[in-house]
Structure formats: C-alpha cells, structure tokens
Amino acid sequence: MSASSAKARKPVARTGSSPIVKDITDVASQYSGFDNHEKVLLGRDDDRGLTAIIAIHDTTLGRALGGTRIWMHDNFDAALTDALRLSRGMTLKAAIAGLALGGGKAVIRADAKRDKTPALLDAYAEMLSMVTDSYVTAEDVGMTLDDADYLRARTPNVAGTRIGGSGNPSAFTAEGVFLGIRAALNHKHGSDSLKDRRIAIQGLGSVGRALADRLAGEGAKLTVADIDRQRCADAATGLGAEVVSANRILTAEADVLAPCALGGVINEANIAGLHAGIVAGSANNQLLRHEDAAALKARGILYAPDYVINAGGLINVAAEIEPGGYDRARVLAKIGKIPATLEKIFAEADRTGRATNDIALAMAKAKISAGR
Ligand code: NAD
Q1: Any catalytic annotation for residue 22?
Q2: Cα–Cα distance for residue pair 101/158, rounded to 1 Å
Q3: Does the structure show a pLDDT above 80 at 9?
Q4: 244 Cβ inside 6 Å of ligand 1
Q5: Given the DSSP bridges, would you call strands 20-23 and 39-45 parallel, antiparallel or unpaired?
Q6: What is the pLDDT of residues 232-282, one digit of tens each?
Q7: Stretch 169-180: mean pLDDT, rounded?
Q8: Which residue, of 36, 42, 302, 367, has the fewest CB within 10 Å?
Q9: Among 105, 297, 334, 367, which one carries the catalytic annotation?
Q10: Does the beta carbon of 174 sit less than 6 angstroms from any atom of ligand 1?
Q11: What is the pLDDT of residue 12?
Q12: Are 239 and 215 in contact (CB under 8 A)?
C-alpha cells in the first residue's frame, strides 16, 4: 500500500544543532511492510541533507541490531517500505541464528556517492545517539567500514567498526552464503562440490565480490553483473568471470543464482524465466513477496531463505556485544551451523510440500515465542 501521507512528508524544520526526530510509527502502520513494528523514527536535518528512517521491529530477544542502508530510493514511501521490510528480516535472522538480538534497520535516503558528506554523517550520528538503548547499527549497502568508523567515533551504538569492533562483517556474510550454496547444491545434487558449477552473481559489492573470490577458489565458474562497470571488469580480469548486463543476470544459465545487490529482485514477473535450479545469495528480501517462494518451488527451484543464509555478518557483529566479547573462532563455529539449519529447512520443505521460507518463518517465530 502506498500511504504517501502528508504527515510523513511534512518537512521537519531544523531549529537547533540536532536533527529533528519524530516518531512516525502510526504513519508507518499504514504501509504494507509494517508488521507490528515497535517503533519507527524519522530524522530530518535539511541543512545537512539528512532524511533517515530507523525502524525497530521487535526487541523480544534483545536490542535491535541491523545496518544502515544509504540509497536514493525513488521516493520516501519506497525508503520507508524498505526500512520496514529490512528490519523485520533482521528480527527473523537473529532468531534463526540463535542470537540474543532483536531486529532493526535504518535507511538514509541519499545517493552514497554524491550526498554522503561528513555533515550528513554527523547529523545521522546525532540521531543514533538518541536511540542508543534500543538500536545498534552497522554497514549495509552504501555504508562502508570507514563510514561505520566515522559514526562510531561519535556515538557508541555502531558495530562492525575498527574502533573496538571486528571490522566489516561482509566477509563473514560471504562465508555463510558460500557454505549455504554448498548445502543447497548438496541437497539438490547429492554433492556439494563447486568444481565446474556455474554461479551467477548479481552485485559485486562487499559481499558479492568476497563470495566470488571464495567460489572461484573452489573451482566454480562465474557469471557476474554489477551496475558498476569497474567491479565487473575486475572480476573478469581477476577471476575469469563472464560478465553480463544487469538485466540479463537473473536469467543467466547457471546452477545457482546468487542475488547480492538489492531486494525484490525475484518476483512474479521473472520467476518463469529463471534458469538456475537454486537461488541462494546475500541480498536481504530477495523475493518481492513471501508467496514468490511457492512459485519458485513449483518450478523446482530450491530457495535458500535470505535471512538464514546471509546471517554470517550479523553473527559476527553480534559477537562484539555478547558477554565475553568478540571471539573469531566462536563466530566461525556459529556460521558453520548455517548449512545444517538450511538442510533442516530444505528437508522439512520436501516432507511437507511447503515453501522453504514458510518453514524458516515458522522456525523464527517459534524461537521468538519461546523468548517471550
Ligand atoms: P554493497 O553496497 O557493497 O554492494 C552492492 C552491489 O550491488 C554494488 O556493487 C552495486 O553497484 C550493485 N548493484 C546495485 N544494484 C544493482 C543491480 N540492479 N544489478 C547489479 N548490481 C547492482 O552492499 P553489500 O554489503 O555487498 O550487500 C549486498 C546485499 O547483501 C544487500 O542486499 C545487503 O543488504 C545484503 N547483506 C549484506 C550484509 C553485509 O555483511 N554487508 C549482510 C547481510 C545481508
């Protein structure tokens, strides 16, 4: 639903040195991505170019943790919907991974290449300082490790930094996706070998490129696409990847399609044209709608639910704030459990005829209920 409410769009004037932060939970409740979110905040600082949404979905299991996406969505409605869907996904991700964390996510509506000034980040750090008790942020699309460090120097509720933290979580996310792809291959073909398997990767950013390196190292053949031509050229030169255009990658001939860019890329309109037998990637909210998983299943395509397979980064940053502090070996051991969780979901989906994301959702909800 598009609730382009005047309330949400009303400019919030900046009167002092801080961004104006408003609780827009009521407005957000009219949007289709809303799922009883606990709190949704809108921060505005017109002088410093900040329009930010912090969506706190569910803190039953702990403080909400989730990255900040810096992206110029087409309009405010799209940005708010994205924040709502992403934050819900974080709740499910933390629950399935067995973490004592809730789900939250932030979106800054800006072009990361053009608008991400120190002034904008200063204003955002001030907004974050107002929610230290309920929300911890980290990297996401458009937010780099340097940005996370910059914010962490100004506010404590930032994880995945070099300042007393474990750095960029993307390599850990990629590791979980890598293991998950092998689990999916094993389930579908009875072998997890990557030798000569072709993997189509959409997006060669922090996660996509690390995943590409890992897969190529195991003998996989890669087909890649990114809207950033340099990233494609680097993968072609460094990994021998075949490069296709951004609009051809989803339908590329491949054993596995790994969406590692933005959400909503698999939908009613393109499922019939997919060629890969497995969809397994890092992108959050890969399916436009929950029901799209049933359509994938009907076509015999095995879908690894995104919030299960891409939990590696969250597991890593969560370790920074766990009792006992960060322990890399413990993090890798937890990431090593992602394939077993996926196998349980795949087997249950086979047994019951239900879609994999139905099974995953039920598992996450059971853990949240138990936490209550
Ligand atoms: P990133 O910003 O580093 O990379 C995203 C890449 O996708 C960029 O190279 C961008 O140019 C490319 N891209 C954007 N639109 C595209 C399109 N239409 N076609 C092809 N390429 C396109 O982001 P990231 O950190 O690598 O995250 C990638 C995805 O994984 C996101 O959905 C993110 O939410 C999810 N994710 C990331 C982490 C993490 O640890 N970074 C953890 C969990 C989930």
Answers
A1: no
A2: 14
A3: no
A4: no
A5: antiparallel
A6: 999 999 999 999 999 899 999 999 999 999 999 999 999 999 999 999 999
A7: 97
A8: 36
A9: 105
A10: no
A11: 38
A12: no
Residues 6+ apart with CB under 8 A from 64: 56, 57, 58, 87, 90, 91, 101, 102, 103, 104, 134, 135, 136
| pTM: predicted TM-score of the whole model, two decimal places | 0.92
Ligand 1 probe mutation, 65, 71, 207, most atoms within 8 A of CB = 207
> What's the gap in Å between 11 CA and the centre of ligand 1?
30
Q: Structure tokens of 360? A: 């995953």
157 in contact with ligand 1, CB cutoff 6 A? no
